[in-house]
Design a protein that fits this description.
This protein is an all-alpha fold and about 110 residues long. About 65% of the residues lie in helices and about 0% in strands.
């Protein structure tokens, strides 16, 4: 399971970096979103719920404080998801405004001459 999660984090981050290096603005925005998803998943995995254990209290209702999941990474990831959505929406609005002004979605505002 840990290998699959590690591969998923690597694929998300690698794809995001590849898209950030592309010349089109929309691809850069999607790349930034993928990198943020990879980082969020990495932070969430740091507070990983152990396999087969209840996250907070077991069915018997007897809390064992040594088996509690760490809620701090979950709270950080939840906050990062909300901020990521807002940032992506803002970047899309800026993309549409820049495309309206320059008639291109190239990152430097100029199409290559062919």
């Amino acid at each position: 399971m840990e290998l699959i999660v590690a591969l998923l984090i690597g694929v998300l981050t690698g794809s995001g970096v590849w898209l950030v290096l592309r010349p089109r603005t929309f691809q850069v925005i999607i790349g930034l979103a993928l990198i943020s998803y990879g980082v969020n998943l990495f932070i969430f995995v740091m507070g990983w719920v152990r396999n087969g254990l209840p996250p907070i209290v077991d069915a018997a209702g007897t809390p064992d404080f040594s088996r509690f999941a760490d809620p701090l990474p979950q709270a950080l990831v939840l906050t990062a998801i909300v901020i990521g959505f807002a940032t992506t929406a803002l970047l899309l609005v800026v993309l549409l405004a820049a495309r309206g002004l320059t008639d291109t979605d190239h990152v430097d505002g100029q199409e290559r001459e062919e």
